[in-house]
Amino acid sequence: MPLKKPAQQPHPRREPRFDRPLSLESVKEIFSGCVDFMERTVYLNGDRQRTVTVCYLLGMTRNERLSDYILRPLAQDRSLSQAPEGELFSLLQYGALYNLAAIRRDTLDDVVNDLLLGSCALFFPGRMDVLTLPVPTEEKRGVGEPENEPALKGSRESFVESIRTNTAMVRRKLKAPQLKIKEHIVGRQSRTQVDVLYLEDMADPETVKQVEEKLGEIDIDGLEAAGNLEEYMADTSRSPFPLMAYTQRPDRLCQGLLEGRVALLADGIPLGWMVPGTIDQFFKTGQDRAYHWMVASALSLVRYFCALITVLLPGLYIALVTFHPEAIPPKLALSIVAAKQEVPFSTIFEVLIMLLAFEVIQEAGLRLPSPIGATVSILGGLVVGNAAVEAHIVSPTVLIAVAIAGVAGYTQPSQDFGNALRLWRFLLAILSSVGGLFGLSLGCAGLIYHLARLESFGVPYLAPFTTGTKMPRGHPSLLRLPLPKMKWRDGAVHSKNRRNQR
Amino acid sequence: MKGALALWLSGCLLLSGCSGLPTAREMGDMALMRTMGVDRGADGVEVTASTGPRAKGLQAEGEKALVLSARADSLSAACLSMQGHSDSYVFYGYVDQLLVGEELAREGIKPVLDYFARDEELGLGAQLWLMRSGTARQAVESGGETGVDGRLSTMQLDGKLGEASMSRTAGEVYTDLMERGAAFVPALVTGELEDATLTEGGYGIIKGERLVGYLEGEAARGLELLLGRAPAEVLTVQLEGNRVSARVNMANTTVGLEIQEERPTKLQIKCRADVGVTEYEQELSRAQQQALSNQLKGKLMDRLEGALAALRQWQADCAGLGLKGAAFHPQLWKEIREQWPMWFRMLELDIQLQVMIHD
User: Fold this and answer.
1) Which of A116, A242, A351, B219 is the right S-S partner for B215, CB 3.0 to 4.6 Å?
2) What is the 3 state secondary structure string of A14-34?
């Protein structure tokens, strides 16, 4: 049978990963060439006849705990030299060591995995099982403020890279045993912990099952970016719109859990995801429930309006100015004519170039350190923009239209959703330049069709605005009603328990 | 794959022009016409169009109004030929003032309205004015460097606020002609004041499609009362030792038909005018108030009767009195609609006027 080319060969998945007997030699062989792999043989209470070998990965374990809770008792506990040989393992597992946990392992895979997660392993001569003791380092970034979702009136906690810290923050806010946290390992090389969180008496079991199945199906080398989870969990390959809402804020994640959604946390990524994702989630902020309902409702309407502005304005400008000038109010038309007279480029070209320039300036500002980024924005946005207008390269109305569309896009709480709107803005502008309002209408119809086809874990993306789920809605999505009146969870999420208050 | 192919082919068709999609035009190359005048020409019609005040560049430096004129045997031909008279694309989508010369109006105004209704750039939203004792061309050109558009817009706005004669759109006039067979159009005359190029000249009455005459002065105010609109005038009354000025603030007119043996026998018009005293020399006593009421009633009645007399003479019910009066007798209206102008002339009139004075 001919050998397949490397690109056609299946991913080399092996179960178990290390198919050999559990022994110290095997572990040493596996970690050969790893400078951080450490081993130390210890005489139990100074008895040279009784030894145990301690293995760990330097930097993954906390040295003080390893010394105080494990090495010190091993070296000084008299009972260890007096106990019968056969009871030594049990004695260490159930009492002699001060560590919080001690786990008996009998496969090489488990031991290697424990070592990688920050445990130390105790190898006993002549035994085929190993005692692993988790002493992971707690070196991590402190809990800071959520920079992308700032709060004026609310918690200032943000998720960090450590998954246990994140689950603890959630647990501290939802002190309920119904909050279930299930762990999955994703990534053959990264072995990243991904936790599924849900409230057992609220979340839809089918959604939980789907989430866990999809996590189990992910077979990649490593989970080092958010996309590794998002693109494998939800089929986003044909749509720029995000199908999983994410947040930096534990309080917002908890709110999602209380709505009956299922949450995901991944080690190393300071974000939490909530599924199923419906379009209204991307217009909500963590502050919506903190403000007065009238203010929150007004701001919600502003965000929806701004989404329309950012996606439609450049296309609408092209359509009106180039194809349907009679629809522009006369005084505005006169201003546009006056400003456009000495500009050598067509309106279509002007708008598309300005949209592109806007993206370039934004990208440049993002890639540079913040002080330089601000300078680039000022230079690009104000100086170059003003110079371009004065040099009659672009007309001021185009600049204003593109700037308004751009700024309106920044009102979107979800960066991913805003990015999708930016892409569609280009498409609609191009369609408008081909067919005016007809092209724009066609594009809008296409956008609605596209959104209507999207699903997230079996729930229509447009569920809050449609009857696709045949479930009664909880409350209006455009407005935020007074909290005492929001008695029902959203029907589209298929929550087991829809009533959320008396 | 099939979808992508279909999309690609559609894109090719659209981009290659095989689409019937609208054509792109740059606004920077457009001359936006604001005012159009139509007159009877030597061998057809004469069209004059003006841009009104224009601006150029970022600082909006003022430019003279562009006035174009063309003669042709049809309105569309004249409009088309004007394209060649300008460096810019002449765009008629912003024409919101339409002036029609008296001579053309006497021949027939309907072809002009038809053209405005069917042309893709023009529309029936333009304000329609009738040039009395002059041509539309003279009126359009009288605006000089700034154009006449500003003056007409001001008159239109004043009309809406009740400070001047009523303004009418071409669409309103066209609808009245089709529904009532008659319509009224505000008329303009060339003013004598230096700063007022055009001034009000009453209302031109169109019957069928031709101009039959004008209502001016008191008769024009009477038409406004018939339409339930407070006339834009101040009435001065000389009472015993007291000169009082008053203005009708609100008017409400209802119309009814008295019917006997399934035939209309009387046209009943009930008008209520709320009058406010604007000036007086001495505070009005109760007796003076009564006297004022009586005198105002007489004046307003004269206006109503004057307007009705002229309209009945022309058999032109441009105020839609028949249609309003027969609102509760649809079957009867169906039978007499064709002969209504004759009925309108012959029916006995019953005018009831109530004047309410407010200090």
Assistant:
1) B219
2) CCCCCCCCCCHHHHHHHCCCC
CA B342 – CA A474 distance, rounded (Å): 66
B7, B14, B23, B27, best to mutate vs chain A, most A CBs in 10 Å: B27
Q: What is the mean pLDDT of residues A189-209?
A: 93
With a CB cutoff of 8 Å and minimum separation 6, the contacts of A139 are none
Tell how strand B210-215 and strand B198-207 pair up: antiparallel
B9 part of a folded domain: no
Q: Does residue A232 sit at the B interface (CB-CB below 8 Å)?
A: no
The per-residue pLDDT of chain B, averaged, comes to 87
Residues B36, B73 within the same domain: yes
pLDDT digits (tens, 9 = 90+) for A165-179: 999 999 999 999 999
Amino acid identity of residue A433, one-letter, is: S
Q: How far apart are CA B89 and CA B83, in angstroms?
A: 6
B231 plus B335 within the same structural domain: yes
pLDDT (tens digit, 9 = 90+) per residue, A63-115?
999 999 999 999 888 888 888 877 888 888 888 888 889 999 999 999 999 99
> Is B58 within 8 Å of A396 when comparing Cβ atoms?
yes
Domain boundary among B197, B215, B233: B215
Pair B116, B84 in one domain: yes
**pLDDT tens column, A76-87:** 888 888 888 778
Query: Which pTM was predicted?
Result: 0.81
* pLDDT one-digit tens code per residue, B322-339: 999 988 888 889 989 889
Three-state DSSP at B209 gives coil
The residue from B168, B198, B215 where one domain ends is B215
Task: Assess whether B74 and B103 both reside in one domain.
Answer: yes
Of A323, A336, A395, the CB nearest to B22: A323
Q: Are residues B236 and B211 located together in one domain of the fold?
A: no
H or E stretch at B335 = helix B330-336
Mean pLDDT, residues A346-353: 91
- Chain A, residues 311-350, CB within 8 A of chain B, namely 321-326, 330, 333-343, 346-348
Claim to verify: residue B70 and residue B135 sit in the same structural domain: yes
Residue B15 within a domain: no
Arithmetic mean of pLDDT over chain A: 88
**Cβ pair A334:B32 closer than 8 A:** yes
- CA of B61 vs chain A CAs: smallest distance (Å): 9
CB contact under 8 A, B93 and A326: yes
Q: How far is A418 from chain B (nearest CA, A)?
A: 26
Beta strands at B97-101 and B127-131: parallel, antiparallel or unpaired:
parallel
Q: Which domain holds residue B329?
A: 219-358
Check B54 against A334: CB less than 8 A apart: yes
- In a domain? residue B7: no
CA distance A338 to chain B (A): 4
Give the contacts of B193 (CB within 8 A, at least 6 positions apart): B199
- Tell me, yes or no, whether B102 and B179 share the same domain: yes
Point out the residue among A325, A347, A436 whose CB comes nearest to the CB of B21. A436
Say if residue B282 is in the same domain as residue B341: yes
Query: What value of ipTM does the predicted structure carry?
Result: 0.74
